[in-house]
Design brief:
This is Cell wall-binding repeat 2 family protein. This protein is of the alpha/beta class and 392 residues long. It has helices at residues 15-18, 48-59, 84-89, 104-113, 129-137, 150-164, 178-190, 205-214, 230-238, 251-261, 277-289, 304-307, 324-331, 345-351, and strands at 6-12, 28-36, 39-43, 65-70, 94-97, 117-121, 141-145, 170-173, 194-197, 218-222, 242-246, 268-273, 292-297, 312-316, 334-338, 354-360, 371-377, 380-385. The strands form five sheets. It has a four-stranded antiparallel β-sheet with strand order 1-16-2-15, with helices on one face. A four-stranded parallel β-sheet has the order 3-14-12-13, sandwiched between helices. The chain is globular and about 50 Å long. 42% of the residues are buried.
């Protein structure tokens, strides 16, 4: 290799193999450690109902309870958005259904789970009375939680949750965009908090009365003032409540701010489509069970500022909703730390999973250092040097 040419070497090493790698060349002048999202699991099916059943299968071998929500169209999400904390408290998967009939994948999954109780979220316009009657005839105990509006349904879910265990706080956000409620769902579930809705420039009156009835002291608003008006803060404070806000004008900004605020609670991320609610909704309670923050993606992964602290991820949905290229992008993300000034380079190699070593010639002639093996492993090209070929 000629003078001043830079040779980069990426070694994927483990504690069992790194101790045998002794790099003695005085040309080794820098090491970098890359900590990426190394454990990525995709849970996807042939359609939203199949994905929903697979998410349940992934998280539960058996459950007395299931939560059933309507998801026939991409606009049927409102009634179900507030349901994650309730499903979490019931240790129940969230399963999707059509308006009139239950998909075979969902019926089969309910049977596999050996469920006894079915909680339907929303009115008969999203999950029909016909379905409810069939479940009852099959011996299931069915509870429908529904209100006249999306605000009322969220209120009734909050009441059900509060009856089980006194609520700690309320998360307040818009009901017109699914991302904001689902972004907060993990945290609400872990904190035994309700998700309630308001839209427009003033606090929804029914929601206001519910907050007072619940007798909580803390309300956290999700979204910037373009999502939930700043006038709502003032109204809540006038009621004597402690009000905080997780700001952001886009789902990506809000998700990032939530993660940064709750780093100690989060072990990983759950990746879902930013344009289709169904997979994120099915996965929301599984995310909470595994202390994972839900993040929303389009064509690219716009969360590089959080990736350095995350080592595991689950993707909800097939490659038609979250592409393979985005999965590959996630796997290859991570922080790069320059440790060129560390004294014990061999110990640095032993202590970390991914090491980059750079060498540069110091003489005006070719040396005999050459790559002898390459392979692909998890989207990373692995270049290995023969230690015998590294010359001083």
């Amino acid at each position: 290799m000629k003078n001043k040419k830079l040779l980069a070497l990426v070694l994927i090493v483990s504690l069992s193999t790194s101790s045998s790698i002794l790099l003695k060349s005085n040309r080794v002048y820098a090491y970098s450690i890359s900590n990426g999202i190394q454990n990525v699991v995709r849970i996807g099916g042939t359609n939203r109902f199949d994905t929903s059943s697979k998410i349940a299968e992934h998280g539960w071998k058996q459950s007395d309870n299931v939560v059933l929500v309507g998801a026939e169209s991409d606009v049927d999400f409102a009634d179900a958005l507030a349901g994650t904390p309730l499903a979490y408290s019931l240790n129940a998967p969230i399963l999707l259904t059509n308006i009139i009939s239950t998909p075979d994948e969902i019926s089969d999954e309910i049977s596999k789970l050996k469920a006894k109780n079915i909680y339907i979220l929303g009115g008969t316009g999203t999950v029909s009375q016909v379905q409810e009657n069939i479940f009852k005839s099959e011996g299931y105990a069915v509870t429908r939680i529904a209100g006249a509006t999306r605000y009322d349904t969220a209120i009734k879910i909050a009441d059900e949750l509060n009856n089980k265990s006194k609520l700690s706080k309320v998360y307040l956000t818009t009901s017109s965009q699914f991302q904001y409620a689902l972004a907060a769902a993990t945290y609400a579930a872990l904190e035994n908090a309700a998700i309630l809705f308001t839209d427009g420039d003033i606090l929804n009156q029914a929601t206001q009365l519910e907050i007072l009835k619940l007798d909580v002291k803390d309300v956290e608003i999700i979204g910037g003032s373009g999502i939930v008006s700043s006038d709502v803060d003032s109204e809540l404070k006038e009621l004597g409540l402690n009000v905080s806000r997780v700001g952001g004008n886009t789902p990506e900004e809000v998700v990032s701010n939530l993660i940064n605020q709750n780093e100690d609670k989060i072990n990983g991320i759950a990746i879902a489509s930013n344009s289709i609610f169904s997979d994120a909704l099915s996965g929301a309670v599984l995310s909470a069970k595994n202390n994972m923050a839900t993040v929303f993606v389009n064509e690219t992964f716009d969360y590089s500022n959080i990736a350095n602290n995350i080592t595991s991820a689950v993707i909800y949905g097939g490659t038609g909703v979250v592409s393979q290229s985005l999965e590959d992008e996630v796997k290859n993300m991570g922080d790069t730390i320059d440790i060129s000034k560390l004294g014990d380079r061999d110990q640095a190699i032993k202590d970390d999973n991914v090491v980059m070593i750079s060498t540069i010639d110091s003489q005006d002639k070719e040396d005999k250092n050459e790559v002898y093996n390459t392979k692909e492993d998890m989207g990373v090209t692995v270049l290995s040097f023969s230690s015998n070929s590294i010359k001083n």
